[in-house]
Design brief:
The structure is a single chain. By secondary structure, the chain is of the alpha+beta class. The protein has one domain. The chain contains two helices and five strands; from the N terminus they run H-E-E-E-E-E-H. Strand 3 and strand 4 form a beta hairpin.
């Protein structure tokens, strides 16, 4: 299996989207002081109801570590749910235009490009 197929397989196994970051004007901390972090959510039509509203499910917590802003991390992760399928489709479309590097091992295509 080539790298593109591995990416597609991971995308297919991930929680369906769309994903969205939590409010970007606030940060969260766990009860033990772990954080700051931003949560990335996916709406769940069967999720719990709180104060008359359906609660979304948390897909991931994006932490502020190594100097990265967890808000930017959360936005990046949330958008990856739609960006990755789009990018895979674009790679496939472009490969059809230029040929697929037949005869390669599936890891590296023509002119050393990384599949």
């Amino acid at each position: 299996m080539g790298r593109l197929e591995e990416i597609e397989a991971r995308e297919r196994r991930a929680t369906k989207g769309p994903w969205r970051p939590g409010r970007l004007d606030a940060l969260s901390y766990d009860g033990d002081g772990d954080g700051p972090y931003k949560q990335v959510y996916v709406d769940n039509p069967e999720g719990k109801i709180h104060m008359g509203e359906r609660l979304p499910d948390v897909v991931v917590k994006a932490y502020d570590s190594l100097g990265a802003d967890c808000r930017d991390n959360a936005v990046f992760v949330a958008h990856a749910r739609e960006d990755v399928p789009w990018l895979v489709a674009e790679v496939r479309r472009l490969r059809k235009l230029v040929g697929d590097g037949a005869g390669t091992d599936g890891r590296q295509g023509e002119a050393g490009r990384d599949d």
